[in-house]
Amino acid sequence: MDIIAVNNFGDTRDGGLAGPMGLFLIVLMCIATVLLIRNMNKRIRRLPDSFEDEAERERVAEIARLNADLERSGGDVADGVEADRSAKTVGAAEDEVAAVPEAKAESPSESGRTAQ
C-alpha cells in the first residue's frame, strides 16, 4: 500500500534551491531598478527648462523658408519692390491728408443745421 502514496507531481529533491534562487532574482531586479532610475535622472536633468511653443517654431521655420526663397531669387528685386511700395504709400498718404478738410466741411451735422 505504500506504492499508492508516492508523490510523482513535482520536484522531490531534498535541499532547497528555491530560496537562494529567489533571493538572487530579487537582488538582480533591485540592481536593475536602481540603474534605470539613475539613467532616467541623468536624462531628465539634460532636458531644457521649457520647450518652444509649436506656433513659435512654425513661425521661425516660415521666416527661414521665406528668407531662403528671397536669397534664391535675388535680393535686388525685393529691394526695388520695397522702394516702389514706400513711394506709393507716401503719395497716397498725402492725397488722404488733402482730402480730409473737404470731407469735414460737408459733414452731415453741419448740413442739417443750415437746412433748418
From TrEMBL:
Decide whether keyword Membrane is in the record.
Answer: yes
Question: Which positions, given as ranges, span the membrane?
Answer: 17-37
Ranges annotated as biased composition (Low complexity): 98-116
Which UniProt key words apply to this protein? Membrane, Transmembrane, Transmembrane helix
In residue numbers, the region (Disordered) covers: 74-116
Q: State the name under which the record lists this protein.
A: Uncharacterized protein
